[in-house]
Specification:
8 helices
């Protein structure tokens, strides 16, 4: 259910790119796509340690879903008047989810809690860059948001090193590979399903001439091949 919000976000990204087919817009949409994928992946990853049958966990995921909707709805105008909405939703999801996990694992061994404390520091720093970018002029916004995304992607490579807290160890992470593979597969299949829905709905309202038929079969074949490549 949570994944549906991010499939909507991917749809918003494709429509945003389609509305302005320029290199500058391609750069912006690519950066936004990486941010959307990153926040989804972080959430899917952290649920390795959370039980979705527990009421607090479900409430947290519902709150993230609402924030994700605002994130998705602001994408088309994220480099205009809704930049602060996108940045605020993104930063609140990253930081808020991490704080919740720190609370949720408070009774588990200290290594796991310390790892999420380190992650929280990195995401808080990047969150400030997201907010500053959202409040900046569109020209400077891309630079601030690229910096924020770079900080978040540098974190895992640096093992989330924080002064006084040290760094994490790969051995500290007990990640269920099957869970991650299942989550990614579910996301991809929903996205491909959305692609088929958009293809069919668009084709229905067009004149069924030769160029339209070629475009239709090209889109459907593309979805089939993406399914084949992934699954």
């Amino acid at each position: 259910f949570f994944d549906l919000v991010f499939v909507f976000a991917v749809t918003q990204l494709s429509h945003t790119l389609l509305a302005e087919l320029t290199f500058e817009n391609l750069v912006r949409v690519t950066m936004l796509f990486m941010a959307v994928w990153w926040v989804w992946m972080y959430t899917a990853w952290t649920t390795n340690w959370l039980d979705p049958d527990q009421l607090p966990v479900r409430i947290c995921l519902f709150a993230l879903t609402i924030a994700g909707l605002f994130l998705s709805m602001s994408i088309p105008h994220s480099f205009a008047e809704r930049g602060v909405v996108f940045a605020g939703a993104y930063a609140s999801m990253q930081v808020g989810r991490t704080l919740f996990v720190i609370w949720a694992v408070r009774r588990t061994p200290g290594r796991l809690r310390n790892n999420f404390q380190r992650i929280g520091v990195w995401l808080a720093i990047s969150g400030m860059c997201w907010i500053i970018g959202g409040l900046s002029e569109p020209g400077a916004r891309l630079a601030w948001w690229t910096l924020a995304l770079g900080i978040e992607m540098l974190g895992p490579w640096a093992l989330y090193w924080v002064p006084g807290l040290g760094r994490s160890s790969v051995a500290d992470w007990n990640v269920d590979g099957g869970h991650m593979a299942e989550r990614c597969a579910l996301f991809v299949i929903i996205a491909l399903g959305e692609s088929l829905l958009v293809t069919g709905a668009t084709f229905t309202d067009l004149t069924w001439d030769t160029p339209t038929l070629i475009a239709f079969f090209s889109a459907v074949l593309g979805s089939m091949l993406m399914w084949w490549l992934y699954f």
